[in-house]
Amino acid sequence: MIAYFYNRAMKYIFYLLIFICSAFAKAQLESSYWYFGINAGIDFTSGNAVAVDNGQLVTGEGCATISDPFGNLLFYTDGSLIYDANHVIMPNGTGLKGNSSSTSSAIIVPLPGNSSIYYVFTVDTDDSLYRNTEGLHYSIVDMTLNNGTGDVDPFNKNINLLPITSEKLTAITNAARDGFWIISQFEGTFYSYELTVSGLNTTPVSSQVAPFIELINSTVTNVDVAAMRGYIKINARGNKLAAAHFSNNTTAEFSGITNVLTARSLAYTNGGELYLYDFDNSTGVVSNPQALLTRSDGGSIYGVEFSGNDQFLYAEVDYMNASTTQIFDFLRGEIIQYDLTSNNIAASAQVIHDDNITPFRGALQLGLDNKIYHSRIQQNALSVINNPDTIGVGSNYEYNSFPLSPNTVAWYGLPIFVQSFLLNGEIETMDHCFGEPQDFSIQTAASIVSIDWDFDDIDSGINNFSNDLTPTHLFSAPGTYTVTATVETLVQTFTITQDVVVFNSIQINDFQPIIEECELGFDKAVFDLTQIAEQINNNSNQEVTFFESEADALENINQILNPSSYTNLYLTQEIFVRVSTLNCFDVFSFKIITKLCEIEVFNVITPDGDGLNDTFIVSGLYNIYDKHKMYIFSRYGQKIWEGNNITGGWDGTSNTGLFHTNDILPTGTYFYVLELNEPNIKPKAGYVYLR
């Protein structure tokens, strides 16, 4: 191509079709649906939280749901009943040994390497006498049964793992990323069970750490259960575990107390514990207990959750006084934020919200939209921490800001998940035109350690792969490519894909980038721009249009409507040509130049009034060489006439000299001298015959 584009050649994708390609939730969508409370539910499949009312649960606390990796609902449970995606109870889906009054009645964990098998772990409670609980169990759901809607395997149902445990469950991907740890806690011990492709190792990794939460030995009902309540959560990174204990009492404190109300009021209001631990997801060991809140602080802790970026821990704390007329007098509730990057995490505590509007106790749960939701009893809405990755009050807790569907009610609990399921990611890029290097990046709340990119472009050789966090790739040909990013985070590795379309680029031929035309007067000329279109384009799928400015060409506005007879604006003017298809366009530029052409002298004048040759005709002179001067001389060298752009052409008369008249001069040969008065153009001289 002729290298004359004045550096104006540009490639663009058609603006109306530009879009960010995102793979939100092509991976890690197992937490897309939530069912909880009284028939309440949330659908996150669009990327935003949408309240739904098709849930069948009636649960005060514990619940769990599971979707497939693409966000399709599979089943959900309150720990006792399992409902399938059609919201009917599964075959064999009754009588699980969880309890809807257990904080974390169940958690659902897929069997690695088998997309059809799910383990449902349950923990029981007994509100009358907690030591009557039946402990930690698991049951297996096979999704290949019951026409693909799932069935509980009757031979693998309610298999006991621990005879007694607290109401606490959580799970996380293991360090090898080939399985999961399922963790529960009782008194002073954490129990970690590993589930891999080989199945469940029923021998737990036991970690004895502070505090010791005693199971009260009392005949008074409902005083031992309070200490067993509260959530445990592992952060998405998989190296920290938080445990909330609603209370921490001793058996001795109830010695001699026989009044049920007095005993229960004491059990609820003595204060609880909030501890942070290190978790080793390669071994399952819980260690290094750090007290964030203790009984002496007076608060009862129930809900805990980590922010999506792993920097902050949030805890829900209730402050209550003992009462002689009811179980407790509610004073206030607080949401406390801890900065896990601080050298003194306990001292980093900030109260981001407090109120005494309603009883405060409730779950905190991170959603796929990276917001943390707070459930409060008997509410038709959830409260929301809108910006949990932000320090302090900027995290923006809003009371009851997410309305639930009519006739549905939140209670204490929200569904729990394998914490690594809460990771989500997007490939950010664009469909584009061939020949343009394209940028790629990952949008995720997780802390990225590394990314392995595969651009599905084998012909690009070693450039088909990249380990850069934000690579740029030049595709080798037009087409559709499935780009894969394997993202290693501080938690696990997850893979997301995105189809990227590389459109055919604009094809143009060599063309002459200058058009010159003679001035027609007043610095104007007429140009046929379509000759450029004919030169540049022989593809019927490409449209060629012309514009007076680059900005107009880019925006495709103010198109030149008469390109075949365009009148210039300036003597030298840049014209922009846009060559476009449905998806792509290129913008080039060329110049139109208005030039002064050679004049043409017609050397016969017949001033007889017939309208033909009545004046001395010089074509291309008037209003073009507007500074010219013309002189007419007789054969004897006498100057008999002079004129310029204003006077017009010689009409055969004399207007200068001693004896000039206004009469037509005699027939004969006369001579002219024409001074054009333009740089580098010499005067012209010749004869003219007057007849």
UniProtKB/TrEMBL annotation:
Pfam families reported for this sequence: CHU_C, PKD
Domain PKD: 440-502
PROSITE patterns reported in the protein's UniProt record: PKD (PS50093)
Protein name (record): Gliding motility-associated-like protein
Organism of origin: Nonlabens xylanidelens
